[in-house]
Amino acid sequence: MTHPDVGTQLRAAAPDRLAEALRDHLQKECGTGRVEILLPDYQLSGLWPVLGGDAVPDREAANRCFSSQQIVASRRTGGEGLLHVPLSAWGERVGVLVVEPGPAGPEALRSAADVFAVALRAAESVTDRYRRVRRRARLTMAAELQWDLLPGRCLGDERFTLAGQLEPAYSVCGDHFDWALEGDRLTVTVLNGFGEGMDAALLTAVAVNAMRNARRSGANIVEQAELASEAVYARFGGTRHVATLLLEVNLATGAVEAVDAGSPKAVVARDGLVRMLDLEQQLPVGMFGDARYEIQRLALEPGDRMLVISDGVHNATPAGRAPYGDAALAAAVRRTRLQPAADAIGTVMRSLEEYHAGSEPTDDAVIVCLDWAGPALVSRV
């Protein structure tokens, strides 16, 4: 008798029952014992169970698995040994699968985890179950809109790794990032919307969707910026605008085209040195209806790390202190040298939090980190 594979089991399950379908498959077909699925919260402060309560058998092992994206064996607790298997899809760190192993080897578990991660990303658009696990506090309406607009929080393959984070996670207003991959072309945008609350979120939503509309029609980043500027101006008449940095990266060569339309800044870390990119600022998107933009060009080298930050990071002035600024940012970036991109953004955000010294941020913040490894060895069609 042929047993159904995990993909068949997941496709047959209701979207809100994927976790149970995976557990049943692993226990019946792979002979595993206990099974748990852990998902990260919006702030990336911890991993939280889908199947059980809030108890996590070995948080340290789960966190190491999530960070390293490698299988981690748990220390034995009460005579129980566990394997922690990363859940990832297209570079997105979806969560961690925790299993008490049976006859099936780690690679079989990892294969099942990969299939489940793809199914979970698809299911999140039609069920709220997994989003409820991820949120540890109520989101503001503005934050709800911003998180739903995001393309994800990580993306990558053998050529590059990309990661982004919004803060404060549960009340972010107008800051945002977007990206899209097609062949060797990676488009990245970071936005800083004018204003607060829902006004800022709606402004950013107009700009993001206008740029997506242009990009999906085959437009380059100049045309994306100009269409977004026209759309925002038509809606708000120049009273509101969106500071935006648009980047188009050629993953085969490292060539980068940029349109700097406002306040987001970019830094590049190379061979232990951190330098601010000297880009000529142009008008923010939406300030004028007939704004025209020009491309600036730069080049990445294999191993380079580029970080793009909104003004909520580099212009932060907690309790009247001097702005966080270039020096503090460069020091934080240097501390990320041995970290993957997804952990690097957390290091910079923690540095910013420490700079606030307990005072509440007066602006939201976004950080996007791009690591370019170099052209792929295998040609892509």
From TrEMBL:
GO molecular function annotations of the record: phosphatase activity
Pfam family of the protein (one): SpoIIE
Residue ranges occupied by any PPM-type phosphatase domain in the UniProt entry: 157-372
Origin superkingdom: Bacteria
Gene3D superfamilies given in the database record: PPM-type phosphatase domain (3.60.40.10)
Keywords: Hydrolase
Name this polypeptide is given: Phosphatase
Organism: Spirilliplanes yamanashiensis
